[in-house]
């Protein structure tokens, strides 16, 4: 083993000690990336590691710290000058694509430094919540418990309907009457709310709608005890804990520091696959809401496969799209046309008022009869 390989293995060991999971398959991808790209600068090595070893925001922070300790300061990672050939390629790409696209996919063979720099520094600022929005959030909090589907608990509890004889309670009661059974006791399985899982698209095409979508997510987390919220643009971010604060504006301000891919590009399929790889159990038997316009970039095969698996896991899979608010809207894009059959409902929601209407309609389960406001 060479000294370079030994140093890289020590780096992986340092990640493990900082709590970053680096199983064998990730290590293999890391070394395969190095072998394929042959990074000549620490900046290029940084992004090879970030792309193959990091899957969450907490992991990225730990990765930055460990990488700085082994290879140098992060400041030196983003100022590496791209080669003249890369500069020409990036210029040509920027002329042919929108600014949002440039945040996601760099040109083939480029260093990727510009894309990652824009993504990490893109901190979204949210406007203060209006009094009207506060009132709608309060109405959502009142009406959500009745709209969320329920299921029977697996545990039996005393009282309620006569489903199972409670022998223990009968025995204890009979001790007070010298063994005589004066009254039967029963146990039953009470109902409970299903988990509510929100997957919120915060990409550039959703910039106009994502603030109200996140306010709706805040109302869900404040109301539903088993709610889980994830955001996605070019990466998946779990934000449930960030939303669990008393004030909605404080929650949005905290989100701005956590969701670093806001207003960037869109990778719906890879983001949903990342969710299924790590958190698939959360979708099992849950009410799953995907809040997105469904405009996937490039090949939509991954998006179609991920939505199909979500539909198999979920109790109900509902897609909220701002585009569906138009009465003439039809899901004709390749991605939405392919996933339409897997959805329980495709509903038009573009603000808190339409979200409240969808909640009052019990999330419009029947396909083709969704709420179009």
Automatic annotation (TrEMBL):
CDD domains, A to Z: vWFA (cd00198)
Region (Disordered): 80-116
Native source species: Asanoa ferruginea
Lineage, highest ranks first: Bacteria, Bacillati, Actinomycetota, Actinomycetes, Micromonosporales
A Pfam cross-reference name: VWA_CoxE
InterPro entries: Uncharacterised_CoxE, vWFA_dom_sf
Gene3D superfamilies from the UniProt entry: von Willebrand factor, type A domain
Protein name per Swiss-Prot or TrEMBL: VWFA domain-containing protein
Chain coiled-coil ranges: none
Parts of the chain that traverse the membrane: none
């Amino acid at each position: 083993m060479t000294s370079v390989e030994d140093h890289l293995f020590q780096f992986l060991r340092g990640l493990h000690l900082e709590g970053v999971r680096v199983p064998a398959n990730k290590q293999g991808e890391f070394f395969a990336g190095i072998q394929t790209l042959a990074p000549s600068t620490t900046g290029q090595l940084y992004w090879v590691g970030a792309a193959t070893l990091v899957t969450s925001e907490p992991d990225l922070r730990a990765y930055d710290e460990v990488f700085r300790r082994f290879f140098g300061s992060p400041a030196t990672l983003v100022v590496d000058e791209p080669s003249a050939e890369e500069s020409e390629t990036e210029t040509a790409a920027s002329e042919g694509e929108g600014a949002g696209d440039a945040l996601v996919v760099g040109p083939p063979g480029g260093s990727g430094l510009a894309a990652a720099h824009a993504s990490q520094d893109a901190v979204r600022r949210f406007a203060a919540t209006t009094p009207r929005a506060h009132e709608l959030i309060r109405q959502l909090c009142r009406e959500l418990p009745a709209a969320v589907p329920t299921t029977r608990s697996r545990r039996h509890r005393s009282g309620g309907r006569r489903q199972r004889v409670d022998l223990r309670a009968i025995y204890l009661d009979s001790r007070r009457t010298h063994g005589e059974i004066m009254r039967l006791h029963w146990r039953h399985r009470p109902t409970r709310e299903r988990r509510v899982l929100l997957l919120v698209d915060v990409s550039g095409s959703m910039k106009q709608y994502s603030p109200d979508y996140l306010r709706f997510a805040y109302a869900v987390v404040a109301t539903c005890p088993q709610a889980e919220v994830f955001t996605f643009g070019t990466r998946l971010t779990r934000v449930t804990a960030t939303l669990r604060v008393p004030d909605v504006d404080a929650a949005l301000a905290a989100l701005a520091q956590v969701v670093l891919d806001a207003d960037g590009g869109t990778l719906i399929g890879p983001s949903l696959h990342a969710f299924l790889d790590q958190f698939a159990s959360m979708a099992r038997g849950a009410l799953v809401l995907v809040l997105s316009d469904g405009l996937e970039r490039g090949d939509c095969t991954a998006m179609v496969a991920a939505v199909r698996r979500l539909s198999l896991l979920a109790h109900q899979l509902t897609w909220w799209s701002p585009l569906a608010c138009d009465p003439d809207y039809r899901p004709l894009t390749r991605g939405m046309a392919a996933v339409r059959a897997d959805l329980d409902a495709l509903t038009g929601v573009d603000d808190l008022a339409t979200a409240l209407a969808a909640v009052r309609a019990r999330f419009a389960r029947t396909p083709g009869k969704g709420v179009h406001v």
